[in-house]
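Hi P.,

Sorry for the delay on this. The queue was packed all week, but I finally got your sequence through. Input first:
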Amino acid sequence: MDDEKVPPLNYLYFYITDGCNLRCRHCWIEPRQMGSHKAITYLPSATFSAIIAEAIPLGLRGVKLSGGEPLIHPYLHEMLTVVEKFCLELTIETNGTLLTPEIVSRFRAFPSVTISVSLDGAQPQTTDWIRNVKGTHLRVVKGIELLAKASLSPQIIFTLMKWNRAEVIPLVNLAYELGAGSVKINCLQPVARGERIFSEGAVDIEEILALNRLVDEELSSEKLPVSVHLPPAFRSLSRLFGEKGNGCSTCGIMGILGVLADGSYALCGIGETVKEMVFGLAGRDSLAQVWRGHAVLREIRGGLPHRLQGICGRCALKGVCLGSCIAQSFYRTHSLWAPFWFCEEAEKKGLFPLSRIALR
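Then the structure:
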């Protein structure tokens, strides 16, 4: 692919450790738990700095730090200094249990920072059971309060399952009371640990779509925006194109690249479980060559959206949705072009919106 056809590398998603202090039942990456017999890998801060230096000429605007749990990284502060040095946008994805006044103050120094905190229940027993560690809920709540007090109102990410579906409204109320900036409701995904509990824990699509309507009509407000993370075909026109909508944004697959804890370049964190989605290794392979020339990335750029199959191939919004999450589709089917599982299941049940199917 010619350089002029290669999109800029807007964001690097760093999975800076494959370890975590929790053991969430639904995790789609399946990190190693601290204190277990498995050794934890941490991305060296020197490697982090070198990757960013290589990415700047490719158009880098921001980085996301995730894991595992990024706050367990012993050299997190050094990494933050690098992000600051290059004036990059910063996104943090954390389980919130390790937030302290000191680290919150460090985040507050960034002119552009977005922090997402996972909270899967309004009741302590629900959160603790899903996260698989007692005391998790109270520590997360304390972390959210620290962020809110520092005017860093975080996004709360709630993964919807049969075990917590009755707590959606209480969770939204709790988020408002704690000073959160927004609530994002994710569906349980059939990947890694989530795959093992999907058959018993996934909420029916009919119920998810009913919740989506409830969110649009009642729960979301200017004071606390709430959204159900679904492909654009299931979002209302006001959510997509209205003055206060968030457009058709999905994961931005054309402009991101993942970096795993061992320094591997990957499509995203899916590279932890699907080795076909690992593209090279920092320090050995040139980031520019990986970004511009790796066969899988070239195939994705050349194939989206016209090679999408099934209902995704017939969707009128495929040009902006781009298959929703091709990483998850590949995990499930070993095809980049397979329809996204939610859309496929919705079509089988006659629930895919007819107005979003392209006329041929």
